[in-house]
Request: fold
Amino acid sequence: MATWDDLATAEPELAADGRRLLRRTGIGEGLLATIRDDLPPRINPVYAEIVDGRLLTFVQARSAKATDLEADPRYRHTMEGPDDMPALSVRIEISSMLPTISATATDTAVMVML
Reply:
């Protein structure tokens, strides 16, 4: 599976544009569209960041997003920009979902590594 670093090596301008879109407001944000059997995709805002050459996003455990991703690891991450900058949308399959430490034991989060 390709990583963000792989994209940056193959298409440096595209990767640079994607990084600018991801960080345009100072925080990494985008839209996560998950696939659901015979239902329309579920689209939710998410925070994401490029860390160690991989695109990471966080979803709450037991959330609709986490349930969708556990059922089907394919999804689309879209980063919107201002009118003069085209959006970037990437189709991705999760390489792993890892539990992370949370503020409360009953509401853990998972880190989705791409």
